[in-house]
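Give me C-alpha cells for this 1451-residue protein.
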Amino acid sequence: MQCYTELTPPTAVTHSISLPFLSAQSNNLVVARASLLQIFATKSVSAEIDNAQNSQLQSSTADQPYDARINDDDGLEASFLGTDAALVRSDRSHYTKLVLAAEFPLAGTVIGLARIKSPSSASGGEALLLAFRDAKLSMVEWDPAKHSIQTTSIHYYEQEDLQGSPWAAPLSNYVNFLTADPGSRCAALKFGTRSLAIIQFKSREEDVDMQDWDEELDGPRPVKEQSTTLTNGTSSNQETPFSTSFVLRLPNLDPSLIHPVHIAFLYEYREPTFGILSSTSSPSSVLGRKDQLSYMVFTLDLEQKASTTILSVNGLPQDLFRVLALPAPVGGALLIGTNELIHIDQSGKTHGVGVNPFSKQATSFSLIDQSELELKLEGCQIEIISAENGELMMVLNDGRLALVTFRIDGRTVSGLSVQLVGPDLGGHIIPTRASTLSKLSRASLFVGSEDSDSTVVGWTRKQSQLNKRKHRLHDASLDLDMDDEDFEELEDDDDLYGEESAPSKQTSNANTGHGGRPGDLVFRIHDSLVSIAPIRDFTLGAASSTKAGEQSNQEGVESDLSLVCAVGKGSSGSIAIINRAIQPSVIGRFDFPEARGFWTVAAQKPIPKSLQGDRGTNSLGADYEASVQYDRFMIVSKVDLDGYETSDVYALTGAGFEALTGTEFDPAAGFTIEAGTMGQHMRVIQVLKTAVHCYDGDFGLSQIVPMLDEDTGAEPRIEYASIADPYILLIRDDASIFIAKMDNNHELEELEKDDTSLASKRWITGCLYEDQFGVFLRTQSDKGTKVGENIVMFLLSKTGALYVYALSDLKAPIYVAEGLSFLPPILSADYAARRGTSREALKEILVADLGDNTYSYPYLVTRNRQNDVTIYQPFRSNTESTAEIARSLHFQKLPNSVIAKNLETTTEDDVEEQRTYPMRRCDNIAGYKTIFLPGDSPHFIIRSSKTLPKVIELQGSGVRGLSLFHTEGCERGFIYADSHGVARVCQLPAGNTTYAEIGMPLRKLGLNLDTHTVSFHPTSGTFVVGCDFLEPFELPKDDDYHKEWHLERDLQLKPTVEHGLIKLINPATWTVIDTVEMDAFEIVMCVETLHLEVSESTNERKHLIAVGTAISRGEDLPVKGRVLVYDIVTVIPEPGRPETDRRLKLIAKEDIPRGAVTALSEIGTQGLMLVAQGQKCMVRGLKEDGSLLPVAFMDMSCYVTAIRELRGTGLCLMADAMKGVWFTGYTEEPYKMILFGKSSTKLEVLAVEFLPDGAELLIIACDSDGGIHILQFDPEHPKSLQGHLLLHRTSFSTGAHLPTRSMLLPRTLPATSDYLSQHETNGDSPSARSPSTVLFSSPTGVLATLSPLSEPQYRRLSFLSGQLFSSLPHHAGLNPKAYRAPASTGAVGRFPPGVDAGMGRNIIDGALLARWNELGAGRKAEIAGRVGFADVDEVREVLREVLGTNGLGYL
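Here you go.
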C-alpha cells in the first residue's frame, strides 16, 4: 500500500477575521488556509527602519509610496533640501506587520469564521466559531495555560434526518456559510437547500430558557438535557458557554424563502435580527426574469424559537449575491450585485448605484447612474474602513481598489457613490482578486487571496492644509470637475506628524460637512504573506542561476534539479523555484582541509595613550568603533594531517582572509573551542582546552586564565564554552563548570558558586543567554537594565534536568525543570514522569533568539545523540509581572518532523569522526537570527515573523564549523568548512527568496501574466512557459449572415477573451528571452517537452517543445485546435544581454478542425507523440515537411484532461473530465490502440498517473472532490469481466487540497531501506527495483507525494498511525480518520470507481505520522514496542524514508 505525505503547508488564504483572541486587549488576525488555522498578532514598525532593513529586498517599484511632490508646488522648495528630504516626509508613518502567534493544522476544511464574545473564556479574549465542510461547527477559545486553543463546543448537522428531501443533492453541492450576531447572542449556519442551524450563546445578562413553550405552535418540547454531575461535583450544564442549537427550515419563517441567496445578522437591534436575500423562483439568466429577488428582515426570539418579519423589499435585481451588514451611523445592509450596489436602511428606504452600462438592462430598480465606471463586481470583496465617515473599501476581481462612500445627513443616509482609486494613490497595488478582507487597525486592512500573496494594506489621509489653501477646498456635494493634479495638491501633513493627528482631523472634516472624501486616501502595502497557490503546473529542471565563471564556486552546494512551478492567477502569475535544501551563493571557495572551526570577531582597536584625553572615544573616528564596523579578524582551529591541534588568526579581506603575523597570538597553544569579544568589544577571548586567553584589539596578550583546581591540583580540560558579555561559562570534562565575569579593567574574575549544587552537581552542557524580552527575568525598574543584569544561565545536569540561574545572583536557581530529558509536550517545573519512563539522551542545549528584522523571540533547542533537535518555545501562563517564574514559566514543544541523517562512523578509535561540533547561535545571517546545527546533517533553524521555526537542510556534505562573516565584500554572510575540507564564504540569497514560509527555500519571479503551464528543455537548459492575457472581444464587422451583430458594435463594456503566449525563460538570469504570440482567440492548453524523431531517413531524435492550443471564438462556433512543434535554436544574443542566445523556432504545425488539443505525451519506442484532440486520442509522427501524420487513434468520451504513458512501454492512461479513466495499449507493428479496461463512467478525473510498485502496476486517479483512487488492471479477477473493469483497491480524501497536476518521479532511498530489500528478496527484475513516487500539486499551494510501502512497513505504519490517532490531541474536535475517508455521497458514493477489491486497506496519512515527534520520549518508546518496532531508532529510520522530501534527494 501507499503513504500520502504533504510536503508544503497550504498557502492560499480562504478566510480571515480580526478579533481580540489571545487576551482581552490583544489585536489578533485569525487566518484560515483551507485546513490550517493561523493566529497572528499585529506589530507596528516605523516605516523608515523597515525600508532601511529591506532596501535590498524591495526591488519592485510597485511597493514604493507615491511621491506627492511630482505635481506639487511645494516640491520646488523641498527639492532644495537635498535628496533625503523627499523620504523624510513620507516615512514618518508606521507599517503594520503580522507576527505569527500560533498555528494549528485541522482535519477539516474551513468554510467560515465568526467571532463570539465569551464571558467565561480563560484568556479574557473572544471565542472563535469555525464552520467546516460540509456542515460542522466548532467553537474554540485560547487557553493561556497550555498556550493553545481549546474546543468548547462542537455541532454536527450532517445527519440523514436533517437533509431535506430524498432527491436533494449531497451537502457538498451547496454553498454553506456562517454568520454571527454582532451582539454574540447567536450564530447561524446555512446548509443544504434551505436549512438554517441557530446556535445560541449564553450572555451574561440572562440565561436562555423556555418558560412559555407552546407545543401546538412550536412543535414537541425538546427534552432538556439531564445535568450530569462531574467528578469535581460541578454540574456540566453551567460549564457550557452555549445553549442547545436548533435547525430552522427557512420556508417555516416565511413561505417565500424557497431559494435563499445570502444571510447576514444586522447591527443595532435589541434581539438577534438578520436580513435574508431570497427568491421564490430559481435563478436563471436564460429565461429573462427580472427583479425577482426580495430582501426580508427577521427578528428571532430565541426563547420562543419564533420570528417576526420587520420589513420586506421586493423587486430587487436578480444578480445580487451578498448581504453586508453595516454598523452605525450608516446602519442597515448593503446588497452587492454584479452590476450594482443597493443600500437598504432600517426603515426599508433604498439607495442604489449602477456601476456599469448593463445595470439599466438588468433591472428596472431605481439606481443612480455611475455606468461610466464600467466595473464588474463578480467576486469583489467589500470591508468597512471608516464606519463614522461611511467609507468602505472594495477590491474588484482584477485587484483594483475602489471606495464606496455614503452621504449621511444626521441619522439618515442620503446616497452612496463609488469611486476608483487612481494608480498614483495605490489603486493597483493588489495584483488579483481577494478572497477575504479584515480590518486590522484604524488605518490598515488585511487582504487575503487564494490566487496570489496576501497583503496588509495601510492608508494615510491626504488632506489640505486648511490655513494655506482654503480656496481650494472642494465640497463633495457640488460635483466639480477636479483633475488628478488638483487632488494631489490637497497635500497633507498627516505623514509629517505621524498618524496620531489623523483622528482629530477626521472629526473636523466630518463636522465641516465634507465627509471623508475618496481620493484623500493613499494606499500602500505594509506586509505580505507569501503564497504559492494555486500551483497550475510544475516541472523538474536544472535551475542553476549562475554565470559560467561562478560555476566552480557553486560546485557542491547546488542541487541537480529544482522544482519549477507555474503559480498564481491573473496578473499575479509567477514562476516559483523550490528546492529542498538551502543553496548558498558562494563568494569565495578555498581548500582548507585542516580547518575545524571558525570564529570571526569585530574587536575594537586599543586606543593609543596619546589619544586618551578627556574627549572620550566619541570623536576618535570610525576606526575605534566596533558597533558599526565589519568583522576584522578570524580565529581558526586546525588539526593537521598528523593529528596535531593548533589555532591561527587571520585578518579578513573583502571576500577572503590572509594570515596575520607579528602579534602575541600563540598558534601552538592548542585547539580553540570558542572565541568571541567581551568588555564591549575591547577584548578578544580565545577559549582553549586548557586555558582562556584574553587579547586586546590588536592581539596583544592581556590575560591568561588557566584551568587549575586548587584543592586537588587537577587540570580539567574545557569541553564547551558560552560567552555573553560580560560573563563566560565553561563546561569541563570533569562535569564541573567555571563562570567568570569581566570587570571594568577588562580582567576576567571567577565568580563564587554561592549555590552549593552548582559545585556539587555534574553538568553535561549549558549556555548563557541575554534576556532582552523579559521572558525568564522580569525587569523591575523602568530605567532599563545595567549591562549584564539580564544574563541567564541554562545548565543541563547529568540526570537530564534543566537548571536556570540569573547570573546577577547565583544563590539559588530561578527555575528547575527535572523532566527535560523526557521531552514532554509541555515542560513545566512540576512535570513528573512515571518511574521507569525512558529518557532521551540529550547531549546539547542552546537558548537563542530566532526571527527576522521584524520580530524575534527566544527558543530552547535540545539535540540528542542522533543529532535530532527538539524546539521548545517558552511562555508565561500568567502574564502579570509579579507572578513567580517557577509557576508561570512553561516550555511548549513545537512541531518538527525533520529527522537528521547520520553517516556510519568509520572506526571506533577515529578521533575526527567522534569530534562533536556544537550548535552555533548566528545573530544575523541575511537579516535572520538563526541557529546552525553542524555535523553530518547540517541544518539551519530559521524563523520569519510569519512562521514557526523551521529546520532546513544546508545543501552539500557534512559541516565541521561555521561562523558569521560580515565584511564589505560579503555582508551578513557566513563561512564554513565541509567534511571534504573545502571552506566557503557564502551569503544566503535574500531578495525574492524565502525559507521558512513553506519550510523549503522558495524563489518567486513575477511574470505579471496568467501563467498556467511550464516545461523544461534539457538540451538548451531553458524553461518554456505558457501564459495568456485578456483582451476585449469584438464581433466580426463584415458578417452577412448576422445583421443584428452591428447593434452590439457600440458596447462600452466588451467581454474579454484569453489570448495565448509562449515565453522562453533562461534560468541563468531568470529573464524572458523570447516570446511567441498565438493567433487571435487562441489559448495555450498544454506545453510538453517530447523526445521526437525528426528524420525518417536517419531516425535522428531531438528534444522538441510541443504546444497544444484551443481556438475558441465564442459559444456558438465550434472549438478548433492546433499542435505546434518548436525547436530551441542558438542565435546571436542581443548586445549587453548574453543570456538571449536562444530562440523558439517553429518546425511543424497541424490544424485540428474539431476540438481543442488538451493533452500531449510521448508514446512507444519510435519517437511518436500522442495527441488528445477533442473526442479522439491520436498517435502522430513528425514528417520532414512540417506536418504531423496520424498513424493510430482511439475514440474518447467528453474531454480528455490528462494522458500518461509508462515510458517506452506503449501502456497509456487517459483521464476524462466526466467519464473516468481508460487504460489502453499501443502497438507499433501494426500501428493500433487497444482498450484494456475502464473505471466507472461517473468519475470526474483531473489527474492520472501510473505508479509501479515492484512487479505491480497501479493506476492513480484523482477526482474533482479531492479523492485519490488506487485502481488496478487484473483480467483474472472474476468480477472484472476479463479486465474490462478496473479493480478499485482503495480511496483516500485529500480534503481541500485536490490534486490537479501529477508527475511520476524516481525515489531516492537509503541503501538499507526495507522497501528495497523486500523487492530484492522477491527476485523482482532490476527495473522493478528502481523505486518511484508520485508528486501532486493542488490549487491551495500544497505539494504532496504518494509513495509505495513494503508489506512490513505498511503494517507497522498502519498500526502506528492508529496509535498516534488515539494519543495526540486533535484541534477543534475534528476526526482525522473521517477527514481522510473518501466521499461516500454524490456520484462516487453511488458509483464506486471500479470493482471493489479493497480488502479493507487504506492509504496511510503522513500528516499523522509527521506528528510522531510531538510525543514525549516515554510515550514514543511505549508505542514503538507496542507496534512491533525494535526501538525508537527503527521508527526514525522508517519515518525518514516516507516523510518530507527525503525521497526527492535530487531537489
